[in-house]
Amino acid sequence: MDNENLYGTKAVQVDLLEMMSYLHSFCKEHDIKYTLGGGSLIGVVRHGGFIPWDDDIDLMFERKEYDKFVTLFEQYGDKQYKIIKNIWLSCVTFLENVKHNKIENMTRCVDLFVFDDVPKGTATRRFKIFFLRLLQGMIKDKPEYQSYGFAGKILSFATWAFGRLFTKKFKLKIYNRISQWGESGSGFITIYNDSFKNLKIIHSSTILESYSEMPFDGLMLYVMSGAHRYLETRYGDYMKLPPIEQRIPQHI
To answer: Out of 7, 100, 104, 157, which residue is the most buried by the measure of CB atoms under 10 Å away?
Structure first.
């Protein structure tokens, strides 16, 4: 395998760049702001594009921008692409991908994360996170037992079993409402449609003061003005490469 495709991600990355080129043009045409996020934001800062072993793209939106994007994309977006909901996280992928793969096995995805306001009160913040974590356990297609002790496994199963009493559509509707619940004005934001362990990570709302385009493997994509502060809060020393054994694709 040549060095350009050392991690077997090249074909997926080429497809993702094609999709991202269209999505960026669509957002510019409709005056929708987003920013690269997660590993994609590390990639643009540290590598000028993909992290070599990365096999998806992460986008982040303010809530109003996300709602605008979903509404307009479903009406006017290129029909070769489709927005799908994988548990509590939405993503854009190829329509052909949806036809031939189960959602939980989906590759070639642009994940859509949403910034919502963090409530002012500490108790309200904790209450909100508690309910969202409970809902995550209820929404999952099967309970997760790894990294849990005996009591944790029992709780994971009980939460999952309780979730079987409700439709997935209803649970996602409640999850979306709770994500936006609480008095705003705290000056802090977070991503509530993220994984269980990341729900407590909060950022100053000033990280989204402005957006500019940065080069990403031949494309020009939006990056928020507070990229450094976001990455430092979430990852610490994000310019440091992880150990070799951790440089693995997540979806292929």
So the answer is: 7
Closest CA relative to residue 138, chosen from 90, 182, 88: 88
Report strand pairing: 57-62 vs 109-117: parallel
CA 178 – CA 58 distance, rounded (Å): 22
pLDDT at residue 86 in the model = 77
What the block records as the tokens of 201 is 């990570």
State the pLDDT at residue 105: 61
pLDDT, position 1: 43
- d(C-alpha 159, C-alpha 151), whole Å: 12
Two tokens, residue 239 = 């310019």
User: For 116-150, what is each residue's pLDDT tens digit?
Assistant: 999 988 899 999 999 999 999 999 988 887 777 88
User: What is the 8-class DSSP label of residue 230?
Assistant: H
Tokens of 108: 């070639």
| Average model confidence (pLDDT) across the chain | 92
In sequence order, what E strands does the chain have? 35-36, 57-62, 81-86, 89-94, 109-117, 188-191, 203-204, 211-216, 219-224
Residue spans per domain, the chain: 1-114+207-252, 119-186
Q: Is 216 left (phi over 0), alpha (psi -120 to 50) or beta?
A: beta
Which segments of the chain have a pLDDT < 50? 1-2
**Rounded Cα distance, 126 and 227, in Å:** 26
If you ran DSSP here, which 8-state letter would residue 42 be given? H
Residue in this structure with the two tokens 């050392």, named with its chain if needed:
6
Fold of 1-114+207-252: Beta Polymerase; domain 2 (3.30.460)
